[in-house]
Every structure is written in structure tokens, then in C-alpha cells.
Amino acid sequence: MPSIENESKMNSRPLIAIVNPNTLAVIGLRQLLQQVLPIMEVSVFRSFEELMLDNPEQFFHYFVPVSLVLEHRHFFLEHQNKTIILTTSTDPHAQLNGFHSVCINVPEDQLVKSFLILEQYAHGKGQHLPTMPKSLTSKILSDREIEVLCLIVQGYINKEIASQLNIGMTTVITHRKNIMEKLGMKSVSSLTIYAVMNGYVDINNI
């Protein structure tokens, strides 16, 4: 029979650490990660020293700028599989060997796709992560709304969706409005995260 302490650990949400002195960058990144990985709890540290004071081994991943990785290379090399480098360069030759890197100097939809690819492939399409809460995986949308959602996140405009599904433009607009109201989402990026995380769309088709 597991102890109360062990049971608490099993039921707790896995932790992610963002280590970055840039407050504005951290706010946006934290919000995005909480959408892509809603089962994770995101903690923020303004410096490497702050991270060291909070039992760094407890974190599932560290999201850190390349400057901090270079400054504390020994630690991050030892935790290579946990470290995600935040870079402003899209040049693959400018990335550090052996580390996962995500370019943050791109439009929101591209950044969302980068994080979804990271989650899908680095974690075996989520199989290495805890089970998603039922509230996040329960079927909220109708079959037709799911069809419309899939076309929206694949970049189709209302006219093209109407043609694909053989329905009127007004019906597409109504479905679109209902989808966003039901999910409480206002952006295509948020809809993309929902569609991929629920298996409605393959990340390679976006």
C-alpha cells in the first residue's frame, strides 16, 4: 500500500520550469505551454540560481535561453534530455548539438506548431505523459463541428470549408462561432492545440 507521501507524488501534476529574466517573454511562453501541456504545472524562475534553490531535479523540462545554457553548460549537459533551448535563430547550424531547440522569434502559429511537434514526438504522442483529465478529453463538439474545426486548423477559409462539406457559408460561420463558444477559445492557435491534443488532426497536416 503506497504511503500518503508517495500517493501525493503520483497524483501531483508534473512540473515544467521556465528560466528567463525577460518577464514579458515568460508571460507569453507560460500561457502557451499551459495550453499545449495542460496536465503540466509551469514554474517560473528569473535566474539559474533561483532554479537551483527549488530542487531542480523535480522538473520534467527546463525551458531556457541559449545564453543561460552556455553559462551553465555543465548542469544542462547533465540534463540534456530535459532541456529545451529557446533561441531566436532559425538556422539549424546555430543550434547546440544534442539539445532540443525551439525558435521563439516566429509567428504564434509557428511557435504553437513547434511545441506541439515537441510534445507529439519527444513524448511518443503523449504516451510518456500522465493521462489527460476527462474534462480536457471529453467530447464537447458535435461530429460536424469537429469536421469544421479540422478544416479551420488546416488553414481553410470559410468559403473553402463550405465547399468541402457542401454546406452554406452562414452554416460554417455558425459552426465556427459555436466551436469557439463551447471551447472558450478565441484564436486559431488555441483551436489548433485542442485539435491536435485530442487527436482530431495530425500535426503533419497543419
The total count of helices amounts to: 11
Percent helix range: 40-55%
Strands in their spatial order, largest beta sheet:
2-1-3-4-5
Mean pLDDT: 83
**Structural class, from secondary structure content?**
alpha/beta
Shape: elongated
Biggest pleated-sheet summary = 5 strands, parallel
- Using only CA atoms, what is the Rg? 19 Å
Amino-to-carboxy terminus distance? 46 Å
How do the helices and strands follow one another from N- to C-terminus?
A: HEHEHEHHEEHHHHHH
Write up what this structure looks like.
- By secondary structure, this protein is α/β, with parallel strands linked by helices.
- The protein has 11 helices and 5 strands, in the order H-E-H-E-H-E-H-H-E-E-H-H-H-H-H-H.
- The chain has helices at residues 4-11, 23-36, 48-52, 66-71, 73-78, 108-122, 134-137, 143-153, 158-165, 169-183, 188-197, and strands at 15-19, 41-45, 59-65, 83-87, 100-103.
- A 5-stranded parallel β-sheet has the order 2-1-3-4-5.
- Helix 2 (23-36) links the parallel strand 1 (15-19) and strand 2.
- Helix 6 (108-122) runs parallel beside helix 11 (188-197) and helix 8 crosses helix 11.
- The radius of gyration is 19 Å and the shape is elongated.
